[in-house]
Design goal:
The protein has 2 helices and 4 strands; from the N terminus they run ββαββα. It is 45% helix and 18% strand. β1 and β2 form a beta hairpin. Strands 1-2-4-3 form a 4-stranded antiparallel sheet. It is elongated and about 75 Å long. With 114 residues, the protein is an alpha+beta fold. The protein has one domain. It starts with 10 loop residues before the first strand and ends with a helix.
Length: 114
């Protein structure tokens, strides 16, 4: 399960609109995690995950602040962080369910050997 790499630096591209913030994750996310994250992020339209050569990045697109648009960048970044946590939880659930089923199978097998 990937999480934010707090030892790496965030990348911010503010030279054009929209402003992008690229949040570094620790290492590479597996394809299943990327699918889960993309599914969750598709609702927002401003967040995506990109697996690159060095690591996986979560990219947040933010409109520039102005009189007409007054975005709350911190809220958008908090929402992206929450999506990372949610994707991690969704990825753990099937593993946990599989572990429970495996334990039941092994318990059944142990009873058969008595």
């Amino acid at each position: 399960m990937p999480d934010i790499d707090r030892t790496a630096d965030i990348k911010v591209s503010a030279g054009r609109v929209p402003v992008t913030a690229e949040i570094p994750l620790a290492g590479h996310a597996c394809e299943h995690w990327l699918e889960l994250f993309r599914l969750l992020a598709s609702k927002s339209g401003q967040v995506e995950a990109s697996d690159r050569e060095d690591r996986t990045w979560v990219i947040v697109r933010l409109p520039a602040a102005g009189p007409v648009r007054n975005p709350d960048p911190e809220a958008a970044l908090d929402a992206a962080s929450a999506l990372i946590t949610e994707a991690n939880g969704m990825e753990q659930r099937p593993q946990s369910d599989a572990a429970q089923t495996e334990a039941a199978v092994r318990g059944w097998w142990a009873r058969q050997q008595r």
